[in-house]
Amino acid sequence: MHLIMISLLCTVAYGISRISVPNLKAINFAEKINGQRLNGSLIRDIVVDSESSCQLECVNEERCQSYNFGTIEGDPNKFKCQLSDSDRFAGFANFTEDKGFIYRGIKSACEEDSFQCGDHSICVLNYQDDSVRCQCKHGFTGKPCGSGVYTINPDGGKPIQVFCDMITGGGGWTADQVQL
């Protein structure tokens, strides 16, 4: 019993995402996000009596990376629990507003600092080693996504290369090197 309690405390204290060993399974869930849900990548859609029951279903399903938890119209004692094998970062396009649901993913480096990749990229987590990489959204390049050297032709004459800074002061700065 003491070993189980120590393992659970380590999960919470040290940010381990998932423990799965014989006789012990645990997940360190991130904070819930009200009014959002992840569509697609559904493992199972089940009816439960509480959010705790939904969390236990996710813990017991090895593929579960997140869940949606929502009300069932007309039955205040039953709830929808949708287990997903994806998360809001990998399924960014499918993360939508839905006032009847909450979303909760497994705590990860992306969850802890979702702004590490900036506004123009998506945090992609490697669940094996908890490392992250930033994947640029469509139409953006560079590191961080959006910043970089671009060729522009503002007056229709000779094209010039400029550095576009998409971070400083909210982004949108263009620097042109003038040589005298």
From TrEMBL:
Query: Which stretch is the leader sequence?
Result: 1-15
The keyword Signal belongs to this UniProt entry's keyword annotation: yes
Record's keyword annotation contains 4Fe-4S: no
Identify the Pfam families for this entry: Fibrinogen_C, PAN_1
Q: Which residues form the Apple domain?
A: 10-110
Which cysteines are cross-linked by disulfides?
Answer: 117-134, 136-145
Q: Which SUPFAM superfamilies match?
A: Fibrinogen C-terminal domain-like (SSF56496)
What's the protein here called? EGF-like domain-containing protein
